Amino acid sequence: MGALNYTVRHAAGVAVLISPWNLPLYLLTFKIAPAIAFGNTVVCKPSEMTSLTAWMLCQVLIDAGVPSGVVNMVFGTGPKAGSALVGHPDTRLISFTGSTATAEKIRSMSAPFCKKISLELGGKNAAVIFGDADLEKAIPATVRSSFLNQGEICLCTSRIFVHNSIFHDFLAKFCAETEKFTVGDPADSTTKVGALISREHLAKVKAYIKLAKDEGCTLASNGDLQLPDRNKEGYFLSPVVVTNVSDSSRLMKEEIFGPVTCVVPFEREDEVVERVNDVPYGLCATLWSQDVNRVHRIAHKIQVGTVWVNSWLVRDLHMPFGGVKASGVGREGINDSAEFYTETKVISIDTK
User: Fold this and answer.
1) What's the CA gap between 235 and 200, in Å, rounded?
2) pTM score, two decimals?
3) Checking DSSP bridges between strand 260-266 and strand 281-282, what pairing results, if any?
4) Which of 116, 194, 226, 262 has the smallest count of CB within 10 Å of its CB?
């Protein structure tokens, strides 16, 4: 060709990092670290619901010697502070974790500037329990995946498909294990489920429970709260297991983001794949089976960003993380973050 061609990577510029309230410190630092590692400066907008941890992080960054102006923290609401950052002409890329509705606004506001965006959004995640599953392992893991952090994790399971051959046995054992998930004071080491984020969110989750009753569903587990006196005014809710629910119900279609999960039977492999995919979201799924050929076959067919087999929430940061469909755009992880937080430049030198 008579030319020497090579590529270099440069920092993309000022990055806007918008983090949610459910895992406030973890998700914020997960964005800050790769952004500044690749030479960008960042402007962070933590959720107004959990701003204290972000404020405390500022002092940690100062103590660590991070230069002034590299990590900037803006406190405020999404419509005011968030919109100003997303629509500012000098911000070059946006990493957002939160709701699909907010993501639609971010895409619209950033489009005129052709900004790079990474969106990690909601999910309606399924667990599929086959007849040969190791229930001693699957049941406690699926209870945990349904109710950890009050179900306020985007990766939580909210639809559980159980093969007909073991459905009743699974349901009985699953509900019994759920009853062991103690709701109460977060300061108590035995507590497994704490308070939901706000009064409004508690009301939203309770509205889905009312919907289940109105639709004639069965609440297979809905334990009474036994709270200490100092917690009785808190936004606590016992884990709820819903059965006899239609796939077309909003309970099976919409992200509830609380301690509510639906358990339904299935018969055929092709049937359950179709039902798992029949939602707007595609973040993650779990498969429980001893049949290696089956789990590989189904994992390829399920429309999600991550499939866990006989486990849940096993994270390798080298692996790309993100969703498909209404669960997001882009991936985060070591290699994918390098791609997102930098721009590639081609340099061609004539050698003739």
Assistant:
1) 9
2) 0.96
3) unpaired
4) 226
Q: What letter represents residue 18's amino acid?
A: I
Q: Are 50 and 201 in contact (CB under 8 A)?
A: no
Which pLDDT does position 153 carry in this prediction?
Answer: 97
Give the integer Cα–Cα distance in Å for 14 and 1: 37
> Strand (E) positions, the chain?
3-11, 14-18, 41-45, 71-73, 91-97, 116-120, 125-129, 157-163, 218-222, 240-243, 260-266, 281-282, 284-288, 306-309, 324-325, 328-329, 342-350
Token look-up 């103690």 returns 182
Query: Given 44, 154, 175, 284, which residue is catalytic?
Result: 154
Question: Residues 44, 48, 104, 120: which is the catalytic one?
Answer: 120
- CA distances to 84, 108, 243, 277 from 112, rounded to whole Å, are 14, 8, 46, 33
Q: Which two tokens stand for residue 87?
A: 């629509």
Distance CA 18, CA 99 (A): 11
Q: Give the pLDDT of residue 225.
A: 85
Residue with tokens 């990092």: 17
Q: How far apart are CA 272 and CA 163, in angstroms?
A: 9
Spacing of C-alpha 17 from chain mean position? 16
β-strand partners of 162: 129, 265
Tens digit of each residue's pLDDT (9 = 90 or more) over 87-123: 999 999 999 999 999 999 999 999 999 999 999 999 9
SS3 (DSSP) at 223:
coil
Question: Does 154 participate in catalysis according to the annotation?
Answer: yes
What is the CB neighbour count within 10 angstroms for residue 25?
A: 16
Answer with the residue of higher pLDDT: 138 or 181. Answer: 138
What's the average model confidence in pLDDT over 257-266?
98
